[in-house]
Amino acid sequence: MTRLFNHKPTAELQSLDAAHHMHPFTNGAQLAEKGTRVITRAQGCTLTDSDGAEILDAMAGLWCVNIGYGRDELARAAFEQMQELPYYNTFFQTSHPPVIELAQRIAALTPFDLNHVFFANGGSDANDTNIRMVRTYWALKGKPSKKTIISRVNAYHGSTVGAASLGGMTPMHEQGGLPIPDITHIKQPHWWAEGGEMSPEEFGLHAARALEREIERLGQDNVAAFIAEPVQGAGAVIVPPETYWPEIQRICDEHEILLIADEVICGFGRTGNWFGSQTFGIRPDIMTIAKGLSSGYAPIGASVVSDEVAAVIDSAEFNHGYTYSGHPVSCAVALENLRILDEEGIVERVKTETAPYLREKWMTFADHPLVGEVRISGMMAALQLTPDKASRAAFAAAPGTVGTICRDFCFGANLIMRHVKDSMIISPPLVITKSEIDEMADRAHKALDLTYDRLKDEGLLVAAG
Length: 465
Ligand code: PXG
What we know:
Elements: H1 10-20, H2 28-34, E1 39-43, E2 46-49, E3 54-57, H3 60-63, H4 72-84, H5 97-109, E4 114-120, H6 123-140, E5 148-152, H7 161-166, H8 170-173, E6 183-186, H9 191-194, H10 200-218, E7 223-228, H11 244-254, E8 258-262, H12 276-280, E9 286-289, E10 301-306, H13 307-313, H14 328-343, H15 346-363, E11 371-377, E12 380-385, H16 401-412, E13 415-416, E14 418-420, E15 423-426, H17 434-457
Parallel strand pairs: 3-13, 5-6, 5-7, 7-8, 8-9
Antiparallel strand pairs: 1-2, 2-3, 4-10, 9-10, 11-12, 12-15, 14-15
Bound molecules: 3-[O-phosphonopyridoxyl]--amino-benzoic acid (PXG).
């Protein structure tokens, strides 16, 4: 058996990594120079690197390890499923118990009549499914011109050609000729950066009505769907004003537009309910799920579809699917993960205990001289850094300069807190304890203080003109 537990020395791993491993969203040459940090083990909320350092993971990996690391039950579920049936497909009139059980479990957990599940390997390809599904839905209903999908600037929906086109990240569109046709983007509900003189409530309505204007511009007969994350995650935890989602729902209903809630980050307890749609009062026709579905222990994603959409799609052959749609091992792992989330009351505890505690701690950052806005929803949160709180200014330095400095100080303090441009963000495992939250906040405060001193020393505490 190949066992990697007794690994090679760090320097050797780093040089082999630089020689052969191409990293996502990374400048390979720069990384090769700095050397990657090699993570070898993890337990609870703590990672261990190849030098034995212990790191507090305030990002739950990539927003996914909701039940925390090191749960033997999931390992056992994978092991036993591999023994029983390591693989079989779900094409051509076949199925298997884990995929059947999981589809039923997801249908029971998701709200409204989201009762039908099309499986994928992760969030990106689930969103690719959604692109094809909503266009096929309208074509089958005799409205083939309803093709355009409206999304938002600074949205993240994945990295495949389709999902990155749905996303609103300009640097992604610039590589590889994106977006694909018939996808457009409206403004995001990011009050701090774009709200101007409006109150957050006014801006929420204003940002939502951009959808109505876009539908009118395109013509309702040409629009298939609107897709959005309940809270934009990778976009820097943009929590919309309270007025935003009800207005979006009204517009989708009135204009016969399918609503796709991308719950890849918000799902499975992140916002304090099982789904972000419940937290924000959204009634989607389709939900994208991944990440917390298996707590990242095995790759799996899905589109969860309403009775009506499923009935239309099922009325013809949907020529779509992945070799690993409903992979039995991933399904078994996801089922065990959902059992733990449910039976251990993890989502409930987030709502009543840990998220309120995190909020209390996180709000203390509002007094820090570098912090312009504190954003939080359940167990995902951001600190918007600024050189001038009063004017909500951006830094004169290139976006991300300050965020990178702060991120590096966090990393140096064995805290994984990510930056998105000049926001610092967290999304810890949902099982994080109050004392771990205290520790995380202490380390983050120190990193912010060090960042502030560095900015002063280097003359970077300057607002953009
Ligand atoms: N939708 C949303 C809302 C996501 O956050 C995807 C879809 C794509 O899922 P897959 O499983 O195909 O990656 C995501 C993924 C980051 C980061 O650094 C965020 C994601 C992925 C990688 C990095 O914030 N989100």
